[in-house]
Prior knowledge:
The structure is a homotrimer.
Chain A: H1 3-9, E1 27-30, E2 33-40, E3 42-43, E4 46-47, H2 58-80, E5 86-97, H3 105-120, E6 127-133, E7 142-150
Parallel strand pairs in A: 5-6
Antiparallel strand pairs in A: 1-2, 2-7, 3-4, 5-7
Helix pairs in contact in A: 2-3
Amino acid sequence: MSIYEKLESLNITLPDVTPPVAAFLPFLRSGNFIFLSGHIAKMAGKPWVGRLGENMTTAQGKEAARAVAIDLLGTLHAAVEDLNRISHITKLMVLVNSTSEFAEQHLVANGASELLWEVFGEKGAHVRAAFGAAQIPFGSCVEIDLIAEVAD
Amino acid sequence: MSIYEKLESLNITLPDVTPPVAAFLPFLRSGNFIFLSGHIAKMAGKPWVGRLGENMTTAQGKEAARAVAIDLLGTLHAAVEDLNRISHITKLMVLVNSTSEFAEQHLVANGASELLWEVFGEKGAHVRAAFGAAQIPFGSCVEIDLIAEVAD
Amino acid sequence: MSIYEKLESLNITLPDVTPPVAAFLPFLRSGNFIFLSGHIAKMAGKPWVGRLGENMTTAQGKEAARAVAIDLLGTLHAAVEDLNRISHITKLMVLVNSTSEFAEQHLVANGASELLWEVFGEKGAHVRAAFGAAQIPFGSCVEIDLIAEVAD
């Protein structure tokens, strides 16, 4: 099953890439690495505002992380044109907008990690760092950046 | 126009590299990648202390991020000896010392992103992640690390 | 002296790798790079809970960062089978669970940086970014991720 058939079976439609509103790029290829900029969680196209420990549950945060992962896949598709050419999802940095009391950033991050595993199988198994940020651009609840590898 | 002529036209003088005060390096080359340590914002050679949302405006934060980018260029110059050999600015991580209310980290980060674009043109267009840190060493308002690529 | 003799001279016993409790990997090799996931500080096998500026001293934080570095070496050993094959410790990201007042993340991070220098000598000299996180998974006081290079 191709990655696109897999996405369809999960009822996932990839979004178009939102061009950053500033002097930076959504993605950059360097050798076999593809670097993706930090993507913030969005709901219905607008920043998904919230803070874990204050006005969002862990389950909602996990859902937001999954949504970010789908946006990252949209960008990755734009970067490589064919997601089947991705040889590995290498690394995620998962920032969770957190109060000083909320300590389940790893469970929030699983929303992204599990989606990548569902879509790419073993090629989707990555390393990651997840932690609490004091705040995220636009007040979004989750931000994730990603490094992937593409086959020649 | 060479990178140094460009810097002169912008009235930018590159600083000397400040050797870290501990067991780590200001830069490291690995293959064609140059990794730079996190550089904190400084003013007149001392940590530029402040927190966005508390005692600094977004415009001041953006100015601080621009100052960090100039320091990063100084370190990059020390790393490669000739900035014209930089084939790409690859990635920035921009940490903004933020209250839990301040959500314009992206605008602060633009101070660095725009400078790199001014100096390097298309070679300066990078990916980045910007977010709010609970605190930064020495109480500095901004910290940025950078990955660049050098041509063989 | 081999790396393992060095570790023995420092009375350091490498831990076994704790498999992550989710859909991500403790380490991943990509070309000559080894990427390690964020490792949280542990004491006696459990999360080393605490926050700098609140209920831990800088010295205790530094000790926790050293403990994380030892766990990272355990994972690196599992990744490459022979630590003598590591050609360089490339980069650390050091997250310190911090109040908004604590600004000595660099001194905490030295606990990891100095250990790597002790163990690997010049091959252990790395770049790094250290900063304050709002919170860390499980309430741990320090989290560190690492990139290393392995010789062919």
